[in-house]
Amino acid sequence: MKKLLTSFIIIGMIFSIGAGKKKQQSAKKTMNSVFKGFLGLVPYMNSQMKFKDPSNKEEIHTHLTTLKNAFDHASHVKTFSLPGFNPTYEQAKTHLKETLEAFEGGQPDFARVRLRATGQLCISCHTQLKANRGSFGPLNTLSRKDFSSDYDFAEFLFLIRNYRKAERYFDKEINEAFEKTRKMSKINRTSVFAYRGNKIENSLEKTLTIHTKVKYAPEKVLPIVEKYSRNKYLDSELKGKMEGWIAALKKWKKSSYKGKIKDSKELRSFIDQNLAKYSDSFSSFDGRNDIDLLVASGALYHYLYKKPKSKDTPEVLYWLSIVDEHLNKSFLFSLSELYLKRCITDYGKTTWGPKCYRTYRDKISHGYTGSAGVFIPEDEVNELKRLKSFLK
Ligand code: HEC
């Protein structure tokens, strides 16, 4: 009996050590701290006045520090070392460090802009994961009344991967925007107003992301876009874009692609069919191409997640950088460059290393080209040298 008890205790100890170790290395634990910091900042993020109010300074500082430290202390988390997550992880660390510095350095406006942009980093990782119903625990502590608009709440829900509910609030936002425009037109009578602003487009883009990149179901989102596209308060530019989306969704609905790329062969043909035309190009595509890019983004991330060590990784990183370049409109940071850097530093000796390097170099010199020629700052010149050394 005593022996049995001892072995129970030993087994119990082994299990608890195992569990402890696992806990220490889990993304979940990090995310709980990240979320705690982020949650504390939500009430201030959406208001310039509150963010600048000296009496809130200490509290904002505490939450910002929590957020930054959570990422800093997560270098050992395995998920964050995967090739799909790692560039975003590194970017999050730098971004939050600089945000905290801006706040401490007496630049609250700048810090707030940066903090709001942080959401894009959360989204960049989370849209690579499956949905989270989010109807439990800490994820449920905020509700609509904590946000100033349906749109802000919808964005928050999108960020924490509660996609079903996010979609409902994006839909509400769109309908309200149309309703307001209708009322304005009625008052003015002389002409029909078109909706001005970007909430409708942004809401639609997130809704499309859910059904193309995260959960691949073009047939589900097609009727939604079709319905909105018939609204007479839509301006002609967005209407044109939506026609492009509708055509693309119909194409994907009919295609043999079912939301996943299985192997190298399928990867190759997917790229040939859908991405080749974006290669090495600085020409800008209008938003009509968004659907193809979103589907590709989902497909590539999924492939990377399933096969992080395959020989296709540098190629996938290269294409992710191209896709991000065209999809992401943020000017604060570009994941596109980070994917290229990763392709160079980790896969410099493969055939993709030099291609990634050339693309990165051209991007940089393109960015520093003005009327008087190309002036690349010294630290960027050094970075190019450093990167080039990985190719040999
Ligand atoms: C480097 C990638 C990455 C970034 C950046 C990131 N997350 Fe996460 N997040 C994850 C992963 C991976 C999970 C899934 C963890 C799990 O369930 O194991 C997750 C899950 C979560 C969850 C759900 C936790 C749970 O209990 O399932 C919350 C909440 C969350 N993240 C908040 C945030 C917020 C807020 C930000 C931005 C400030 C953010 N995350 C940025 C990778 C990231």
Number of helices: 17
Q: Strand count, sense and closure of the main sheet?
A: 2 strands, antiparallel
Instruction: Provide the structure class.
Output: mainly alpha
Q: Count every beta strand, where a strand is a DSSP E run of 2 or more residues.
A: 2
Which bin fits the share of residues in helices? 55-70%
Strand order of the largest sheet: 1-2
What is the string of helix and strand elements? HHHHHHHHHHHHHHHHEEH
Summary of the model, kept short:
The protein is mainly alpha-helical. Helix content is 68%, strand content 1%. Helix 2 (27-45) runs antiparallel to helix 4, helix 10 (218-229) packs antiparallel against helix 11 (236-254) and helix 14 (313-327) packs antiparallel against helix 15 (335-347).
Written overview of the protein:
Strand 1 and strand 2 (373-374) form a beta hairpin. Mean pLDDT is 88; it is low at 12-24. This protein has helices spanning 2-24, 27-45, 48-52, 57-72, 86-104, 108-126, 150-159, 163-188, 199-214, 218-229, 236-254, 264-274, 290-306, 313-327, 335-347, 352-367, 378-388; strands spanning 369-370, 373-374. It is mostly helical. Residues 26-28, 31, 34-35, 38, 79-80, 85, 88-89, 92, 118, 121-122, 125-126, 129, 132, 139, 160 line the site of heme C (HEC). Heme C (HEC) binds at residues 26-28, 31, 34-35, 38, 79-80, 85, 88-89, 92, 118, 121-122, 125-126, 129, 132, 139, 160.
